[in-house]
Amino acid sequence: MSFSSEVKKELSHHMSSARHCQIAELAAIISLCGKISISVNDEYAIRIHTENVSVARKSFTLLKKTFNIKTEISVRRNRNVDNNVYSVVVKEHGDARKVLEATKLIDEHGDIYENLSIVNNMVIMQECCKRAFIRGAFLTTGSISDPEKFYHFEIVCTTMAKAEQLQKIIKFFEIDAKIVERKRHFVVYIKEGSGIVDILNVMEAHVALMNLENVRILKEMRNSVNRKVNCETANLKKTVSASVKQIEDIKYIKDTVGLSALSEGLEEIAMLRLDNPEASLKELGSMLNPPVGKSGVNHRLRKICDIADGLKN
Questions:
Q1: 16 φ, ψ to 5°?
Q2: CA angle, 141 then 94 then 109, to 5°
Q3: What one-character-per-residue DSSP string does 44-100 give?
Q4: Per-residue pLDDT averaged across 17-22, rounded?
Q5: Residues 6+ away with beta carbon under 8 Å from 299
């Protein structure tokens, strides 16, 4: 099971205790994947179509628990993409009207808002209802990437108005959400790992949040170790390159004018470097009598290199 499916499965079993939050979550589901049909007798019916069993389960549970109404569930096999399509249907006009009025998806005259708009919807005024709405929206058209690979959270909306409303709700919780148009749809997305942790907390997906945090900690540890290894490797290469250059210069002086032409201090460090090609500057300094610090050793070796460069020129 993918990480996204695990999150949705957890959210499908989460039930808000307050009825107004249940209505807010149902409003998101109907707005993003519901359809309203009107018969010739002006009777309403609600149909929620989804390929995710978690959405079907949550829709059925919310309708039953919140409104105590009868719903029908059907399953159809989609052979084109080899998966199931679930339909949750409220056929009774009175029941459908009761749901639409509670979710504020129709006005007082019984007219359905364009595209089942949730813009400025009264059911999402409270903070707890905003949480429930985001939870329903993610369940319906959301997805989240495997955090082992990269961080990406998104919810797909059919109109820019819905995307902007959802972005506004998410930003209420001080989470940076952006919108991008993709194939005539509008995607509200979050890219930062910390932002995804926050949105999981907002939706109350606490198990998924802990799993994501564990992955983030491991990735941070790996990245930290890699940075240290890379730094140490770079320093080692730098030390080795410097040592090779120093030994070449010392040998050049030895073959031309002889090391005895150097001052006593420079000759001593030159001999030590030839005998200890892999030693660090600190280690070379400790071998001198009296011992010399790292900067003192570096100064002497630089003078030797300058002498060698002068001889070459």
A1: -65, 145
A2: 80
A3: EEEEEEES-HHHHHHHHHHHHHHH----EEEEEEETTTTEEEEEEEE--HHHHHHHH
A4: 91
A5: none
Whole-prediction pTM: 0.71
Ranges of CATH 3.10.28.10 domains, the chain: 3-204
Q: Exposed, middle or buried: residue 298 (CB in 10 Å: 0-12, 13-18, 19+)?
A: middle
Tell which residue, 196, 146, 186, 12, has the closest CA to residue 86: 12
Return the SS3 of 293. Answer: coil
Tell me the per-residue pLDDT of 151-195, one tens digit each, with 9 for 90 and over: 999 999 988 988 998 999 999 999 999 999 998 899 999 998 889
**Contact criterion met (CB below 8 Å) for 96 and 23:** no
Angle between helices 127-141 and 160-172 (to 10 degrees): 130
CATH (one of 3.40.50.720, 3.10.28.10, 3.40.50.11750, 3.40.50.970) for 3-204 = 3.10.28.10
